[in-house]
């Protein structure tokens, strides 16, 4: 169980096992904070540097360049969060290809939270996989969650139990709503094929493992058959029908643990099926209690874990633990409109514990209190109507009928570009304000109304052009609004955008030399050698420390060993010289670089 105090979940998942290095990853999530995704490649860079430097802007830039192509994140369309930024940040533009928006057919939502990560040995001779199945989205939400981390090695034969898992990754490209990215599609299929051959190490005490895709024929999930002796359900969102079906699958439904608002909305006859109805204690709703709540560490949103526990007996007592993304709702389990993933683990109760241990003092017991079934939920009709309006509007923006797109063109003001939104926005019932702006810019100065008859146009430097557009929808109800990001198709991106982004970060001669040294580092040596950072991370440490490094020696070594890498230096010099107001490439370097360009030309002749 993940305590809200824990903020290291994704970084620990990316940490390679001893003797291995990160290669690539595919992740899925219902909602996502771009800031968290931006931090993933930076963490990989800092980890390679053994944590010996701070978040240097140049290191961030180089980390994004090296790692963003290897990480793909599939997210429910309309559920990308608007990043909280104090100032404009052009680096978000690097995420356009990393983020793939998807939607579930049949009116459901794309809800799985999974990371599949491939690690390889430094010489590429061995590969292993890590699978992280979560109930937490890729956000900074401070809730009580659950995660399962499995590691496995590639074997010479396919594993039957991995069929649902392979099918899951294989179908991801078919769910994408945007223009197909052939590299990302190939990556998803590559993972699907490889996962067939992974043999997973089971958590201690468990003897059986299975993957399930609720609603997908052949890979669906059903509670243990015959009936379990006991059952407990942990789910933040519930529906009467789903809980009643689950209760019929067990002789005794011992406990239902949910959020108070979810419990209040259930029928009394449903609540009466469970011996105990529990919710988190108010003190557990914060990071260590109300007194620790600050602007930086706000209140937790409460329970977010999804767990189904069954106890069965077959010559011995067994515990079945099923966890993943599926809430105890019709959309997730019965009607199965959503796309979900569940993992079931089975072990002897004597080894892994059971429901009593979960609810006991050493489990969640100290954080739980009984729910008062006599409480009647107070229905705020006006709020419900406003919530329906804002979700209908969000669904239109995220739906298949939306044809919004972006087009870039030179602006009337020299050196600026116009980013024009094309596509008709219909009347949005109940929406009194609708604004949009590129997430690379700040909303205070660049938000544009979507409800006026005027064209939606933003003017900005080339560095801040992006297809990631933030939307804010407001209703008459002061507490009901929606804020989200869409990755809109974009045409006419100026060729100098990448160069312009570079120029915003590398804005002086010292920065150029430091970034060049990062660029010359070894792209594959990410591990540690004798406790010291190796590869390009070595330069990250030494450059950040202000150490004098012989640039000529490094260029010569690269020319001798990996001459093809000097094409990156050539592109860097060209990009930073193209339209730059200040000379960030030192004249002394240009003179030296001409010698290498000449040598490269002779070598290739």
From TrEMBL:
<protein>
    <submittedName>
        <fullName>Phospholipase D family protein</fullName>
    </submittedName>
</protein>
<dbReference type="InterPro" id="IPR059166">
    <property type="entry name" value="PLD-like_cat"/>
</dbReference>
